[in-house]
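Exam revision sheet. Question 4 asks you to relate a sequence to its structure. Input first:
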Amino acid sequence: MKHLLGKLGAFAPLITCVAMFLFFSLITDTFLTSENLLNILRQNSALAIMAVGITFVLLTAEIDLSIENMAIFAGVLAAYLYKSFAASGVMPGVLVQALPILIAVLACMGFGLLNGFGVARLGVPSFMMTLALFLITKGLSLRITRGTPIFEIPPVLAYVGTKSIPLLHGTNEAGEQIPWIEIPLITIAAAFALAIALVVLRYTRFGRSVYAVGGNRQAAQLSGVNVSLTLVACLCICSITAGLSGIILIGRLGSAQAGGLDNMLIACISAVVLGGTSLFGGKGGIANTVVGVLTLGILYNGLNHVQIDIYLKESISGAILMAALVLNVSMARIRGVQ
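Answer key, structure tokens:
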């Protein structure tokens, strides 16, 4: 019986995603349209990029609470530097756009290394270490913006955040060629990040080390895995993906400000957990994360179409997360993780 429950538990996230999709498709006429489905992808692409990093961290049985403000900080820093470089007029146009993005990503990588050093070398619990960085990056974002949004953003980010690539073409009544399906560039960027992470986790030595550290840290150490280096790398990846998420988001939103991403932290962790990645480490992966992000995206989008009171969405999100946590713990016990 436990073996059967374990098998069913592995498919539970996918079943939930499909059931939710069918439910909203049946109760509303506006959900199952190509425009709305592409909108779900567009709205959740930045979340998917951020979820890549959280997946790595959760697989090692750690947590990163700084990702929301890390994303905000990266977007604010990139926009501020672009505004400054553009005003100076001393750099070529390509560098004016590329350098702020590169500096913002490197800054996030530095914070990730700081996280990793504190957790892996000093033994500070990741909960507290990343919570401290949550406050640090929030303060830096407020200092840079002074509470005022920055509307000058690199054009390349605005292009990626708002444009789409035609995938299928058709002909209208006038005989003109029109696109039937347009894939958002931001979704392509998310798919690229997810694909790289999938390859790394499934087919590289580092990926096997991530699962080993999350499964049994002491056994991994005895088998020759560099546990400290793996933890540092995962926390660094998490900071970088959070930064990339924030940088891409300013292109989609058209501005950078020290706020506006409320609940992205809880949404990101919820998505990864909903997908079936274990909070106890060693179980899950990128495929699970894709399912989780789609499930959360379908849920929020579907609630908009059935006109649920906006003030109830927070409660529903909390209820879904609680159910996912209970399921996660139950499946972990059945599989003998605890």
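Marking note for examiners. The chain has one domain: 13-163+180-331.
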